[in-house]
Amino acid sequence: MSTDNFKIQIRKGLLEFCVLQIISRGEVYTSDIIDELKKSEIIVVEGTLYPLLNRLKASGYVDYKWKESNQGPPRKYYVLTAEGTDHLSQLKISWKEIDKSVKNIMTIKK
Prior knowledge:
This protein has 110 residues and is α+β, with helices and mostly antiparallel strands.
C-alpha cells in the first residue's frame, strides 16, 4: 500500500468521527462541513458527504432543520441529536484508545 493510499484509507475511516465533531458545535450547513474538512486537509466531495449524512440521520445521530436562505431556496442545517452526542463520546474514547495503542507501538524499541 502506498503512503497516499494509506492516508486516504485512514481519512475515510475517520470521516464519520470528524463530521459528527463538526456538527456537535452547532447547526451547520453541508458546504460549511466540506469547507472545514478541506481546511483540515480531509478532502471530501458532496457525493461522499450526502450519503454519510443520510446514514447518520437514519442512525438517529443527526437531524436537520430547514432554514430560509438569502441566496436561493431554503437550506438544510444539520444538528447533533442526544443519541449522536452519546455516539460521538464513544468515538472519542475509541480514538483515544487507538491513539494510545499506536503511540505505544511506535515507541517500543528492540
